[in-house]
Amino acid sequence: MTDKAEVASVRALDALYQKTDKVYYELARGCGLSETAYWILYAIEVSGGSATQARIADEFSYSRQTVNSALKALEAKGLVALASAEGDRRAKTVLLTPAGRTFADERIVPAIEAEERAFATLTPDERAEFLRLADAYARAIDHERARLAERGATE
Asked: pLDDT tens across 30-83, in order?
């Protein structure tokens, strides 16, 4: 890519990603949580109150070890409990404790509602176009990541 406008656009996209990532970093820190712990509680909330460890790891592209470490911290704070998943005792379901429910209602739910309000500032057509373009970019960058991996450039 040698076109300066294209390079500038890619750098602008990088900056936008970093700006958005910082918003979520600040939300997590405002809750007194690591980003991983924040996203675990977020995943549990949007899943109706429980989610498996594997689903959380897959959905957020975290290693199982990263999720496990964050879960231990959340357990130590009394916010989550682990239970064997139905049909597979080796798999663990993560549940909010009563204290975790209170915490989520006070910290996670308002953040989700803020996301919804922010997204609603776009028109329905803008929202659809944004999602379409973001998905197209995510697929394209994942394809490029796979190409790099094939060449051994990301190992």
From this structure: 999 999 999 999 999 999 999 999 999 999 999 999 999 999 999 999 999 999
pTM (two decimals):
0.86
Q: Find where tokens 């509680």 sit.
A: 41
Q: Please calculate the CA angle 62-32-103 and round it to the nearest 5 degrees.
A: 90
The Cα 19–Cα 38 span in angstroms is: 18
Distance CA 97, CA 44 (A): 11
Residues counted in the chain: 155
The dotted CATH code for 4-121 is 1.10.10.10
The pLDDT tens digits of the residues spanning 1-10 come to 458 888 889 9
Q: Which residue ranges make up each domain of the chain?
A: 4-121
What does the buried/exposed string (b/e) look like for 100-125 if buried means 16 or more CB atoms within 10 Å of the residue's CB? beebbeebbeebeeeeeeeeeeeeee
Rounded Cα distance, 133 and 127, in Å: 10
Q: d(Cα 51, Cα 13) in Å, to the nearest integer?
A: 32
